[in-house]
């Protein structure tokens, strides 16, 4: 079984004369454990493809299957709990870090764990462990505005990894 299967995926932004076809009939299959890089010029649709697979950008047409569950088929499939799928199956690092500005680095990672019902003290130690493994042990209490661009992206990486337990050296 594939971890991710995409077929015939099309995303059109807008309508009529201003419509932009960002991706057209894309197909992609990713095996569990496989590392895939998507390359292409600016504006070629990479973010659109990844946000569609990440369940935060509704495709116009086509199918998306995540870990055997068909989540999109001509729009989101009905009866699929997208929020739960995002929480349990996906980690997403945004092009802009999208950290919550009024939470510290540590709290930005903790919140991803607490919404999955981890206790505050467990979340705190897991967040500390992850951030330390990304060389941010000295920046736990910094707000995003007091982090460098690369540090903020590493906090976003820690947040994306927070709920991942398989194959994660942090656990
Ligand atoms: N919300 C939107 N509304 C309208 N058009 C959009 C929207 N988002 C992206 N586009 C257009 O869709 C196309 C693909 O954009 P996308 O962001 O997926 O590109 P990208 O490959 O990630 O580019 P970059 O390398 O610059 O990040 C571009 O032409 C862009 O202008
Ligand atoms: Mg992009």
* Topology pattern, helix = H, strand = E: EEHEEHHHH
Low-confidence stretches: 167-171
Q: Supply the CATH class of the largest domain.
A: Alpha Beta
The number of helical elements comes to 5
* Strands ordered across the widest β-sheet: 2-1-3-4
Overall form = globular
Helical content (DSSP H or I, runs of 4+): 25-40%
Number of strands: 4
CATH H-level superfamily title of the largest domain? P-loop containing nucleotide triphosphate hydrolases
Task: Give the bound compounds.
Answer: adenosine-5'-triphosphate, magnesium ion
The major pleated sheet works out as: 4 strands, antiparallel
- Stated plainly, the CATH topology of the largest domain is called Rossmann fold
Q: How would you explain this protein's 3D organization?
A:
This protein is of the alpha+beta class and 171 residues long. Strand 1 and strand 2 (20-30) form a beta hairpin. It has helices spanning 46-53, 82-89, 105-114, 120-133, 149-161; strands spanning 4-13, 20-30, 61-66, 69-73. It is 31% helix and 19% strand. Strands 2-1-3-4 form a four-stranded antiparallel sheet, covered by helices on one side. The longest helix is centred in the C-terminal third of the chain and has 14 residues, at 120-133. It has two domains: 4-89, P-loop containing nucleotide triphosphate hydrolases (Rossmann fold, 3-Layer(aba) Sandwich); 105-161. Helix 3 (105-114) packs across helix 4 and helix 3 (105-114) runs parallel beside helix 5. Mean pLDDT is 93; it is low at 167-171. It contains five helices and four strands. Bound molecules: adenosine-5'-triphosphate (ATP) and magnesium ion (MG). Adenosine-5'-triphosphate binds at residues 13-14, 20, 22, 40, 42-48, 95.
